[in-house]
UniProtKB/TrEMBL annotation:
GO molecular function term, any single one: ATP binding
GO CC, alphabetical: plasma membrane
InterPro entries per the UniProt record, alphabetical: AAA+_ATPase (IPR003593), ABC_AA/LPS_Transport (IPR051120), ABC_transp_permease (IPR001851), ABC_transporter-like_ATP-bd (IPR003439), LivM-like (IPR043428), P-loop_NTPase (IPR027417)
Record's bilayer topology term: Multi-pass membrane protein
Transmembrane segments: 58-79, 85-108, 115-135, 155-174, 205-228, 240-267
Coiled-coil regions listed in the entry: none
Pfam (any one): ABC_tran
Keyword Transmembrane helix: yes
Organism (species): Pseudaminobacter soli
Annotated protein name in UniProt: Branched-chain amino acid ABC transporter ATP-binding protein
Domain ABC transporter: 339-565
Length: 572
């Protein structure tokens, strides 16, 4: 995984260096000056890519963070603080961090349009503040001093390319780190992310903080580019245009950020040359954003899709290496009852979904939980894993009550689950997902788990695998974390009959190979027979049977629950 990050980072660094050298050598002075702005805007777009593209939160105040960075840079320049532009820009970025965190706080509770209103409100408030103050050096026309080595316009272009490259490389590493994967997981499904033990507040606030830092840097770079700044450089309309372009191009991709920078910088130039009003640009950006939202695909993703069609199959990373890997020894958990549910009652308004049910899963066993549709099986899993606001009764893990713990805390304590519908972020690679799901797992162990489940190689993009395989990867991630208890909610959905039976065999072997106990919800009775040593049956929110699979599945009460009146009619 580390190897892949280094390769990706090197690739990015090399082609950016080639681009910089070609531009510096062949572009005329005026165009070089314009292209410098492209990459400064590209930095701002990269910052928005973190918060919006990667984490799925709307930020309409990104240029306000840039404004903070620019203001601090201008101030430090005015007072000739030692260190020069590099230090001032970094301090400007740091100054934007607390602002980013404060703006990020409402994101812990708000989503979508509500978060958009809050961030837009901040941008409007920032506009008002800027209208009453001036940028340091604005009235005295004090120019922000560029670093001595990069003073000329060509030099400053190379300086900007250096900064852009450093940020792009850092983001390559970040996007393949657990933090980067957790942002994508949060964007895709907050519930699934919490079930993996990810702290949602931490993921959201870190995204806002790092995004504000990079945006603050872009403001400082702009100060060095223009020399003096005015409030209009950072107003609300700039933030809105940035958001629209980021949505259109996919600013969390290095190429997308550059394409967005080109549009924002060169479009006004083009409009000026053909004599059209500048507002036409905003209309175009808005239409592009609507197009990307309605097709669900940004320009970068379209390029990637078309590019992958042209790529030879051998480069796509679908095949796992043939070398066989060995699973680590099973985890050692407490003996006795791993999971104990007593008197569990759940109501949805007038519907009693669960009525004082009892359930227990001994350690290192597989227990099936079956019942007709609406019997209360998923509700039981939701209650155990902390996804219901309230329930009556108690849930104990290795004898310890879980009441009062959030979903994240329960997952960290060792109750892990999969979902009826797969909730893996498609932008992740298989190995990144397993690492995200299983915490501090070693690369060799990731390979071994994937091999054991017959899943694609770690480098395979989730988006490229079919629904049945995604479910298998989902289960592999939960199993790889080797918790005391794992709850699998219909893991065979989307699999063929043969695949389901094979999965049944694998699930039966989980306690021995990984040390975990399993509570398995399934409708496929052949799979249940293969996997489980005991079965509990629910009907209408009550426990109606428990025991060995053959005895339970052969009992009249269970058959009646499944076939209802049909059986009564046959008996009559
Ligand atoms: N959010 C909800 N609001 C209201 N009622 C709900 C809600 N979720 C579940 N129910 C009701 O609670 C009962 C149990 O539902 P649950 O989804 O737990 O059943 P299940 O056994 O998992 O069914 P299936 O096999 O179809 O997934 C059903 O009557 C269902 O309609």
């Amino acid at each position: 995984m580390k190897h892949a990050s280094i390769k990706a980072a090197l690739r990015t660094a090399v082609w950016l260096a080639v681009l910089a050298a070609a531009a510096a050598l062949f572009l005329p002075k005026y165009w070089l000056f314009l292209i410098t702005a492209v990459f400064i805007v590209g930095v701002a777009l990269q910052s928005l890519g973190i918060v919006t593209g990667r984490t799925g939160m709307i930020s309409l105040c990104q240029m306000s963070f840039a404004g903070v960075g620019a203001w601090v840079t201008g101030y430090l320049n005015l007072y000739e603080v030692p260190g020069g532009l590099v230090v001032w820009v970094l301090l400007g970025g740091l100054a934007a961090v607390p602002v980013g965190i404060v703006i990020g706080l409402p994101a812990l509770r708000l989503r979508g349009i509500n978060l958009a209103i809050v961030t837009l409100g901040f941008a409007a408030a920032f506009d008002t503040i800027l209208a009453t103050i001036t940028y340091p050096g604005q009235t005295t026309f004090t120019q922000v001093v560029r670093p001595a080595l990069f003073e000329s316009d060509k030099g400053y272009f190379l300086f900007i390319m250096l900064v852009y490259g450093l940020i792009a490389v850092a983001l390559e590493f970040l996007s393949r780190s657990r933090l980067g994967a957790s942002w994508l997981a949060v964007r895709h499904s907050e519930r699934a992310a919490a079930a993996q033990g990810i702290s949602i507040p931490m993921a959201k606030l870190s995204a806002f903080a790092i995004s504000a830092f990079i945006s603050g840097i872009s403001g400082g770079l702009l100060a060095g580019y223009l020399g003096t700044l005015v409030a209009e450089n950072f107003n609300m309309m700039q933030s809105l245009a940035l958001f629209a372009v980021a949505t259109m191009v996919g600013a969390h991709f290095t190429l997308g950020a550059i394409a967005g920078g080109l549009m924002i910088t060169l479009f006004p130039e083009l409009l000026r040359r053909i004599g059209l009003p500048q507002d036409v640009g905003n209309v175009f950006f808005a239409l592009g954003a609507v197009q990307a939202l309605s097709t669900g695909e940004t320009i970068s993703e379209t390029w990637a899709r078309l590019g992958s069609k042209l790529m030879p199959a051998r480069l796509k990373g679908q095949k796992r290496s043939t070398a066989t890997t060995t699973l680590a020894a099973p985890a050692v958990h407490a003996k006795g009852t791993a999971l104990e549910v007593s008197g569990l009652t759940v109501r949805y308004a007038n519907v009693v979904a669960l009525d004082k049910v009892e359930l227990s899963v001994p350690s290192r066993t597989v227990v099936g939980l079956i019942g007709p549709n609406g019997a209360g099986k998923s509700t039981t899993i939701d209650a155990i894993t902390g996804f219901l606001p309230r329930y009556e009764g108690s849930v104990r893990l290795d004898g310890r009550p879980l009441e009062g713990l959030s979903a994240t805390a329960r997952a960290r304590a060792g109750v892990r689950r999969s979902w009826q519908t797969t909730r893996i972020a498609p932008e992740l690679r298989v190995g990144e997902y397993i690492r995200l799901a299983a915490g501090g797992i070693k690369p060799g162990e990731i390979e071994a788990v994937l091999e054991w489940f017959d899943c694609p190689s770690p480098e395979t993009l989730i988006a490229t695998v079919d629904a049945g395989t995604r479910r298998l990867i989902d289960v592999a991630g939960v199993v790889a974390s080797r918790p005391p208890v794992l709850l699998l909610d219909e893991p065979a959905a989307g699999q063929s009959y043969a695949e389901a039976l094979k999965l049944g065999e694998r699930i039966a072997a989980i306690p021995e190979k990984f040390g975990s106990a399993v509570l398995l919800i399934e409708h496929d009775m052949d799979l249940v027979r293969r996997a489980c040593s005991a079965i509990t049956v629910f009907d209408f929110g009550r426990k109606i049977a428990h025991g060995a699979p053959d005895a339970v599945l052969g009992s009249v009460i269970v058959q009646k629950a499944y076939m209802g009146v049909e059986l009564e009619e046959q008996a009559a």
